[in-house]
Design goal:
The protein is mainly alpha-helical. The protein folds into three domains: 100 residues; 57 residues; 158 residues, no CATH class. The protein contains 23 helices and six strands. Helix 9 crosses helix 10 and helix 21 packs across helix 23.
Length: 446
């Protein structure tokens, strides 16, 4: 999500291939993210009075907030950053959400544990995750009343992509997943044998007494799954405009390796295509990347623990709370008129004024020029005020007080500064120049 100045200078002196090797080495170990949860069984929850259920869900929301904060800390840490960045990609691919915080924790750690493993293991683990089973209603998928939600999305969004399956395939796959459920209290997968359809099924031209894993194996055996996922990975890691030749090479590598994710990422990161300067700065930073980058530099601390989640909501990406089963609209979807003004104002507001008011999404912005001015706070319907305690001193201590603008550009930007930025930054105080760069359109790119 970015490097501190000291890190950037140290790494710049090392060979590229050595840096890639270290990236994988530092991400090899997996440590789960955990927090405290108020946990009851499904029967106990259903027996609660409405007021008790409300308090239980509120405690779950607090635990979700803690998980959000703990993962943000990991995302802003250099050690293990490839695993976390890869897990963030899978979070937008295998989309799930649930009220139950212990199930959210299990889902998050499933993504993180298998982020650099093999796709088959990840797919089967996510398909059994209680958060996924709850989100796509497979808990209600029973032999006498098949629910097709999960079966449809596992083909359309997770493997083949739209147009490569039939409605009959959806129906037959749903039968194979009957009986897949979970226990709320343990966040564990449960196979309800009495609810499973053991009859013969015909799926994509093959007939047999297929179970859920058989369906997943057949989807993995289709090269279209490799093509669909690698194109999505290309847009996430390289460029929104897909280079068809390189994407085809990625798909071939992924498929023939048995869906080895780490092998594919090594192939991408060491390729001349990825290292081509023309590929740099083609992506718009996601809100998570933008916020974690600022946190990386300035160790942001918010006065209220819930404020980072409100800020994520305003920017359009709340970790562990996707908008729908398709995930977030990426690229230019991050920067509608409201979001762009907020993103450009964000560094100055958080680091200079130490506070930020914001506009509700979709609300009238009024005078956009005034809204973008450094001294014009954005205000929501409740007048929420964000106060932060950024560690500017620690950041500035990593810089030579006489550092040139060109060296600041090299440290903070991944693209060449525009003539407008070069002309406007001037020779003012160091922190003022840093803020000018962080508040520029160029800083939005990676």
């Amino acid at each position: 999500m970015g490097l501190a100045p000291d890190e950037a200078r140290a790494l710049a002196r090392r060979p590229y291939d050595e840096l890639v090797a270290d990236l994988f080495a530092s991400s090899a170990a997996y440590t789960p993210i955990t927090t405290a949860h108020t946990v009851v069984s499904g029967d106990r929850y259903r027996a609660m009075k409405p007021t008790e259920q409300f308090r239980y869900r509120r405690a779950g929301r607090e635990a979700q907030r803690r998980l959000n904060a703990l993962w943000r800390q990991r995302l802003a840490t250099t050690e293990g950053c490839l695993r976390e960045k890869m897990a963030l990609f899978w979070h937008g691919h295998f989309v799930a959400w649930t009220y139950w915080s212990n199930c959210t924790e299990q889902y998050l750690n499933t993504l993180r544990e298998h982020a650099l493993g093999d796709l088959g293991t990840l797919l089967k683990a996510v398909s059994r995750a209680p958060a996924m089973l709850a989100y796509l209603n497979n808990q209600m998928n029973r032999k006498d009343a098949p629910n097709e939600n999960f079966a449809r999305e596992v083909m359309e969004l997770f493997t083949l992509g739209r147009g490569h399956y039939t409605e009959q395939d959806v129906h037959e796959a749903a039968r194979a997943f009957t009986g897949w459920g979970f226990e709320l209290g343990t966040a564990g997968f449960v196979f309800h044998e009495h609810q499973h359809d053991f009859g013969a099924k015909t799926f994509r031209g093959r007939t047999g007494n297929f179970a859920g894993d058989d369906i997943l194996d057949m989807l993995l055996a289709d090269r279209r799954t490799a093509e669909f996922i690698t194109r999505k990975m290309y847009r996430w890691f390289v460029c929104p405009e897909v280079d068809e030749d390189f994407a085809a090479r990625m798909a071939d590598r992924f498929f023939t390796s048995g869906y080895d994710i780490a092998d594919l990422m090594r192939f991408v990161l060491t390729s001349e295509h990825f290292r081509d300067a023309a590929m740099h700065g083609r992506r718009i930073k996601s809100p998570a990347e933008l916020l974690c980058g600022l946190d990386k530099h300035f160790a942001l601390r918010f006065e209220r623990e819930e404020d980072p989640m409100f800020l994520q909501r305003m920017l359009g990406q709340v970790l562990l709370d996707p908008p729908n089963v398709s995930g977030w609209k990426e690229g230019e979807g991050w920067v509608d008129s409201n979001a762009l003004m907020l993103r450009l104002k964000l560094p100055s507001a958080l680091l200079n004024m130490g506070q930020l008011d914001w506009e509700e999404p979709g609300a009238s912005t009024g005078d956009l020029d005034k809204m973008a001015a450094p001294d014009a706070p954005l205000r929501d319907a409740q007048g929420r005020l964000f106060r932060t305690a950024p560690d500017k001193a620690a950041f500035l201590a990593q810089l030579d007080p006489a550092i040139t603008n060109e060296d600041l550009f090299d440290l903070l930007l991944q693209v060449e500064p525009s003539l407008v930025l070069r002309a406007g930054i001037g020779r003012g105080p160091l922190m003022e120049r840093v803020l000018e760069i962080l508040s520029s359109p160029e800083y939005q790119l990676c």
